[in-house]
Write a structure and sequence with these properties.
Length: 575
Amino acid sequence: MKSFSRFFLVMFLFVTLTNSFTINETIVNAVAAPSASPISSPTPSPTPSPKPTSLPITGEEYSYTVTNNEVKITKYNGQCGTVTIPGTLAGKSVTKIGTEAFKNCWQINSVVVPNSVKTIESYAFYNCTEIASVTLGSGILVISDGAFGFCSKLGSVSIPDQVTTIGAGAFECNYGLTEVNIGTGLSSLGKDAFIYCNSLPQINVAANNATFSSLEGVLLNKAKTSVILCPPGKVTAFSVPNTVTSIDNRAFSRCQKIQGITLPDSVVSIGEESFRECFSVANFTLPNNIETISKRAFVSCHGITSLTIPNSVKYIRDAAFSGCENLTNLIFSETLISIGDLAFSHCYKLSDFIIPNNVISIGSEAFTYSRQLKNLTIGTGVSTIGSLAFASCSSLQKAIFEGNAPKISTDTFTGASASFTVYYLQNRTGFTNPWFGYPTQMQGVIESATPPATPTLTATPTVTPSATPSPTPTVPPAQIFYTVTFVGPLGVISSQFVEAYHSAIPPYTMWGEWYGQHYIFQSWTEPYNNITKDTVIHGTFHDMIPSPPEISFVNSSVRMYAPSGISIICTQVGV
C-alpha cells in the first residue's frame, strides 16, 4: 500500500514539473525570441508620402470632413432657426458646403454663408422650406445644381461678384422669390435655374458683367443677340429688341403671367419649349425669317386663337403647338415641308384649314382632337400621313386629297364623324373604295381644257334636206369641279366646289376681328368667276376702327359702336 502511494506521488510530481517547464519555455521563447535576422531580410522600402486623407468628424452642430486642411460640412446636426456657418472648424478653413448637407432642415429660417466657402454643392439647402433669408459670402465661386431648390419662402438673392457658375435648378420652385441680382462674375447659368419662381418679375445684372445683360428684367447675353431667360413672374409685355437673332431653349417657358411678346424679324431661331405655357399671350406674330419651329416651342399657349405660319418656315417639329386649346384659325406657310408628330394635337377649336402642296409628311397624331375641324384639304405633295394623325376629329366630314393617294394607316382618321368621306380627283392614283376602311368619292377631273364656245344643248336636232343622217346633238362636256377657297386675315372663311367655267359665290364678309384688331373688308384680290382650276382667293381688309368697338348682337346682325359714336350695322361674319 505504501509502495502504491509513493508511486502515485512520484508520478504526480513528474507531470506537474513537465507542464511547468513547457509553459515557461513557451513564454520565454515568445518574449525573448529575436526577430528575423537583418542579414537575410531585404532592406525596407522608403515610406511613400501619405495621400491626402478625408477624416469624417461629427461634432455637436456639424459633421464634416477634412481634406488637405480644408473643411467640407457634410451634415447639419443643429436645431437653430438662424444659422451662421462658421468660417473655421477645428482650426481649419470651411471651403465647401457638401451635397445635401442642410437638405430638409425645415427649422432653419435664415442662413449666413461665410466668405471662406468657395463651393455650395448640389442640393445643399434643398427643400429648406422656411428659409426666408440667405446671405452668400464673397468667396463663393460655384452654386451647384438644386442648391437652394424648393426654398419656397426665400424672398431675394444677391449673387456675389466672384460667383462664376449657377447650376441647373439652383433656385427652382422658390415661389416667394421676388428679386435676383447677379454680380459681375457669372458666366454660366444652368438649365431651369429659376423655373417656377412664379413671383419673380425681373432679373438684374451688374452693368460690367462680361457675359450677361438685362433688359426690362429679361436676361440676355451681353451683345443682346440672344434671349436667355424671362423670369416666370414677369407680367408686363415684352418687345424683343431687333438685335436678337435667337430665342434660347425654354427662354420664356412657363411665363404664365406675361401679357404679350413681340418678336422682330431679326429672329431666325426659336429654341425648344421657348414659349411653353405662356398662357396669357393672346397671339404671336412669328418672325418672317425662321425656318424651323422647334419641338414644343408653343405647347399649351392657351391664349393663341389665330396663327399664320410665315413663308420662311419649312419645318414644324414635334408638339410645336400641342395643347393650344383655343387655336381656331390656322394658315400654313406655302413653303412648308413637314409637320411633326403631335404638332397640333389637342387644339380642340381648330377649324378648317388647307395643307399646302409643298408638304411631304404629316406626323403621327399631328391633329388629334381637332374637334371643330369639318373640312380638310390636303395638297398635292403629301406622301405620308402618320398613325392617328387626324384621330378623334369628331366633326370631320370631308378630307379632300388634291394629289395621289399618300401612305396612311387604318387609324389615321379614326373617330371622325359617321359621314366622313375621302374625296379625290379622277386622274389621281392609289385611291380605292373603300380606302383603308374609309369611303371615298371621286370629286372631278383635273385637265387643261379650253372653255367651250358657249356650250348649249339644242332641244331639237337640225334636219338637213339631204338624206344624210341627222347630226348628233351638241352635248355639254362632262362636269368638272374645282375647289375655290376664300381667305381672310384670320384664315379660311369658306371653301366650295365650283363647276368648271362657273362662278364661285363669295362669302359676305364686311367686318371681322383678327389678332385683336378690327378690320373692314375692302375687296377680293383674285377673280372668282369663270373658274378653270383650284383657286385660293384672298381678301383685303383694312383696320378702320382705332380701338375696339362696343358690340351688341341684334338677331343675325352685329351692331358696332365706334369710338366716334357712329353706329354701323352689318351682317355677322360668315365662316
